[in-house]
Specification:
Layout: E1 20-31, E2 34-41, E3 54-59, E4 63-68, E5 79-84, H1 88-94, E6 101-108, E7 121-127, H2 131-143, E8 151-157, H3 166-173, E9 179-184, E10 194-195, E11 212-217, H4 220-232, E12 240-243, E13 259-260, E14 263-264, H5 265-268, E15 271-273, H6 274-281
Parallel strand pairs: 7-8, 7-11, 8-9, 9-10, 11-12
Antiparallel strand pairs: 1-2, 1-6, 2-5, 3-4, 3-6, 12-15, 13-14
Keywords: 2Fe-2S, Iron, Iron-sulfur, Metal-binding
Organism: Devosia nanyangense
Cofactor: [2Fe-2S] cluster
Length: about 290
């Protein structure tokens, strides 16, 4: 997977279309089809980023895809990416081993408004792999817990075996200053928690609708129903933020692959306010 050795000491490029070279430092298996990679720049330091932004990861000889950042500043001079094997490029990235080299462009896009949410109740709602793009924002809020009022994390997955970041979820549930609720679509005999869809967890947590900021990430249908449930509970649509996913190619709003109504997900998102996109989000063919 690594390119010729002669390129390994090239400096970071200033061309947004040319990837920098990153070495795979560690690979952690999360699920049968999902891994978390730690990537370190071969030269220089990794750029700063905001929770919710994404990078374009390039598997040499295969292709490039957009992947959200799933770690935080504690990662040091590394990017953390959690990737599910769903195609040729993601599969090649998931098969990476320590020492392999990937291309990386970024970070790109609009992140979660974590600082703007200070002083408010904060609700994180994730479905499946949607917990990965939310994790940097969760970690930042928890590191600065005193700046926020009530904090709730709601997570849904297909079944207990598909639970992402299980150990971290368990550690968060041990805290006394946040609420964590988990649900599954299909339970097994050992499951004793909630069964059902993620929006069904909203009545189980304490929050002031007038003072709540919600961060939502997951399958699009899940986000539509969650946003509807939150507005029905009294949360203003401009205080609900969704992370959209589209086929991003250039990552800087030129190619048009990720156009979403008048916006481009790569530069106007991926995090978007619900009041801005509610009408378009209701059109399933968009």
């Amino acid at each position: 997977m690594a390119p010729p050795d002669a390129r390994l000491e090239e400096p970071h490029t200033t061309d947004a279309f040319v990837p920098d070279l990153y070495r795979v430092e560690a690979v952690r298996r999360e699920l049968s089809d999902t891994v978390t990679l730690e990537l370190a720049p071969i030269s220089g330091t990794r750029p700063a980023y905001a929770p919710g932004q994404f990078n374009m990861l390039y598997a040499f000889g295969v292709g490039e895809i957009a992947i959200s950042i799933s770690g935080n500043h504690e990662s040091g001079n590394r990017f953390i990416h959690t990737v599910r094997d769903v195609g040729a490029v993601s599969g090649a990235i998931c098969r990476s081993a320590p020492g392999d080299v990937l291309g990386l462009r970024g970070p790109f896009g609009v992140g979660w408004p974590v600082a703007a949410a200070e002083g408010s109740d904060v609700m994180f709602v994730a479905g499946g792999l949607g917990l990965a793009p939310l994790r940097p924002a969760i970690l930042e809020v928890l590191e600065n817990r005193a700046r926020y009022d009530r904090v709730a994390i709601l997570f849904g997955t297909r079944n207990p075996a598909d639970m992402l970041f299980r150990h971290q979820l368990e550690s968060w549930r041990q805290r006394l200053d946040i609420e964590v609720e988990v649900t599954v679509d299909h339970a097994d005999p050992d499951w004793h928690g909630h069964v059902g869809v993620v929006p069904g967890l909203i009545p189980h947590v304490m929050f002031d609708p007038a003072e709540t900021v919600a961060f939502v990430c997951g399958p699009e249908v899940m986000m539509r129903f969650t946003a509807t449930a939150l507005t029905a509970a009294g949360v203003a649509s401009e205080r609900i933020h969704l992370s959209m996913e589209r086929n991003m190619k250039c990552a800087i709003g030129i190619c048009g692959h990720c156009q979403f109504g008048p916006d481009f997900v790569c530069k106007d998102g991926p995090v978007m306010r619900y009041d801005r996109i509610a009408e378009i989000l209701a059109l399933r063919e968009i």
